[in-house]
BFN domain-containing protein
Amino acid sequence: MNPSSVQPVVQAPDEVEMQIRGLMMDPVTNMPIIVLKDVGSDLVLPIWVGIFEANAIALELEKTATPRPMTHDLLQNMARGLNAEVRKVVVSELRDDTFFAVIWMDHAGETVTMDARPSDAIALALRWDCPIYVNRTVLESSKQAASGTPNVNAEEMRRWLENLNDDDMGRYKM
């Protein structure tokens, strides 16, 4: 892609930039959790994902080389081969306890969007070193969903996630 033709990443007003705070295992369900943190505050968003998706994210966080391209490496190579570039990913929706995401790409001066699972979008964002955003309505919906969950105090869960240290996060090891 010609660097002079690349447009800057545009953050929509309803998007909150997040970074990966860590990966951990849910002690109750034994499922991996990606913990995203607002870059401008202590707000966190946990997203439960599959073990293979968590592994793909952990490999990239740890910059672990694999002998052959993994699926997300293949997708990055394909996009590059087609002269496309991933510019940002957005966790765009929370519906029926399921998160949805959109991958934003540039191709030949055009913006192309593709629906994706958040775990796949995040794995690609790490490989492209591009920003991860979450729609504000998703953050609000996730707060409401957490407060409506039986036997879980949303405020305690939020505080617990915000106060996790690197040892609690397992240094991204799965």
